[in-house]
Queue: 2 jobs
Job 1
Amino acid sequence: MNDPADVRFFRALKQICSQSGDVDQSCREAIDRAVETGHSRDLLSARQSMDALDAALKDRLLQQAHLIMATDISAIWDALPMAADPSKRRPN
């Protein structure tokens, strides 16, 4: 079973990489594949593609991805105990 944080992380990276001309096509494709399939093999491939990037670029992308994740209120709501019960609605 995949961790929902992995899915959110790679969705954030995909969003960031689509706005950056600095990320090579093979890395973008690996991230796209990870988002599409969620398969552990594809998640690993995307992580390895990120690891191969220039350190400064990688740090910048990770910082932006973590900012997106940290400000994603839906991720917070989904982690609450009531989120597991589909009959309950979010209080907002």
Job 2
Amino acid sequence: MLEIDPQPNKRLHVGAQTYAINRHRIRRAQLAFHPDVEQLVLDMEECLMCIMRVADSGQKIIALYNFTKTFRSVNENTLKALLGSDVTQWQDLLHNQALQHEDGCLKVKPYACHSISVV
């Protein structure tokens, strides 16, 4: 179990430690984050990395990373084929926030990481 360091200035700020602990708990609760599940690297546009994890239960998580200082767009049709067509059911598990959609594309903020699944 993760614990908060009593001397946060030596390692991580307390807020960063709390975020890390919560992120760990969220990941443990998702079957598709288990280390033994199938993992596929998907072909995306340049500067985006996309990894799909599929649990035996059928749960899918798409990890989407933007490695640039600019917004990137991902065609929603690509993700719909993997997650289903109801984009209102997609959720960023690690940030517990709605995703930005615009003109049939999912907007990915600079240097962002999203773990998207159907809720």
